[in-house]
Design a protein that fits this description.
three-stranded mixed sheet, 15 helices, D-Maltodextrin-Binding Protein, domain 2, disordered N terminus, 358 residues, alpha/beta
Length: 358
Amino acid sequence: MNRRTSLTGTWFECASRSSLTLTTFALGLLLRLSLFASSTLAQQTLVVVGVGSTVPAPLYTAWSQEYGRQHTGVQIRYVPLGAEEGIKQVSRGTGDFSAGELPLSEKERVQDHLVELPVAIIGIVPIYNVPHLPQELRLSGEVLAEIYLGSIKNWKAPQISKLNPGADLPDLPIKVVQRPAGKGSNYVFTDFLSKSNARFRSQIGTSLSPKWPVGEPAERSADMAAKVKSEVGTIGFVEYQYAAKNGIQQALVLNPAGKFVKASSRTLVAACESVEAPEWHRLTASLVNARGDDSYPLTSFTWAYFPAKSSDPARSSAIVNLFSWVYSEGQAIAEQEGYAGLPSQLVSEARKKLAELR
């Protein structure tokens, strides 16, 4: 273990285990430790720090490794503390950029002077552990909402059976697993459930920090995947790449066209194309419940958030150079890591907006 891993990794793991609220001071300490550790390796290294959602964390890890190999004077340090915390910190100038799955508010754009740009396409998938099913489970937003409201409690419930004719569903209690406050995956998942179920919309709504009436929390995406994979009867939701790479059962989800669709790079891009074409300029659009037979309904951009103005030209230039690379070589890496790359037309629009940050 190198010094940077031991200083930052141990601190973060301890904070997570004890469920501490991360304050600005604590985050600042974490980032200073990262900067200090990097400076011991090379005095001339510029460290670019991102803070944000766990959803794209594996992607930023892959990007930072490859970019660091190609650009030895720059290191990328991404700290996955949640989308909400990330936006707060970049608005305060604690980090160089943030990342997450929700569009900025008008206040964040106008008063905090932040800008968001899509960098890849993600899918949130319902995952489950129901043994001996001969086929992939089919679920709708209506039924998922009732499960997460606590109204549907058994896998043999008639609402689930109706969506899965001929399936021998077990008489087994449903164990709900959800995410704690501040998570980007919460925002996408609750947005879909709110658009699918009026009761969910009125009682919980679209939120980074929903007040779940049932279930046990899983702090990280990896924790969610591990819990569902190991416990029979569980249901949860996680990013597509976690389910695909860990061999976890993922449900087909009913889209607005009446089709049950499985998440894949193709169906995520289909949702994006349905919303963006032919203008290709809606860089802050929601992709949830996009129209089209092939569109996966729990699709979203993952955005990077930046200060619109910077007082440090060298650091601003480094960030623009990094994300220019993200829009070129980085898109192929996104595909390799289980995310969907942006259509070329959207990349062109994002590059124009990125150039304005210089």
